[in-house]
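Record copied across here:
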Amino acid sequence: MVTRLALAALAGSVIGLERERLLWAAGLRTHMLVCVGSCLIMIVSAFGFSDVLGTKNVVLDPSRIAAQVVSGIGFLGAGTILLRGEVVKGLTTAASLWGVAAIGLAIGSGLYVPALATTALVVGILAGIKPFEERWRERMRSQTLRMTVRKGTMSIDTLHAVTGERASRVRQFTTRPASDPDLDEVTVTFVRLSRTSFEAIAAKLRETADVVSVDTVNS
């Protein structure tokens, strides 16, 4: 039983270190405590009632204690979720706490191979998938160009002619009169476009004769 608890602490520390390096509130110690606590609860469920099981008129379901971990860990995960403006932070850390709780239950029940495999998978998901996720988010993020052009020279068709195959990436196109009566202000928002392609479009527009200026707008 002590070996199971120690193994649970080790598994929790491996996942907790990944969260700790990103300076999340739920880091190394939190993940270790959740995993060890879940392991102990599983041990209590499996062996803590052996002295009363089989006693006349006593009917127990030891699995019910372990089952409460699945729902009970939610309060701790909720504490790591923050709303900053319109962005929700901490969901991944909350999920990792839920995962280490499951790992602790598995180790407490003696399922070492599934528990270690899950530990490796969770670490791989947290550390290995993040670069791909960030690249995808960067690609999906909207990017905006603000142009000053000669009056009546920039339309959606003209923009399509300049951007070519990337025309389908235009989400919004607006035109309004500039302070100079001979000029228009055009705002174009692109989606699902890499930063390199976005900069290439801006460079092409700057080379267009009727375009006076092109500025990028931070999203």
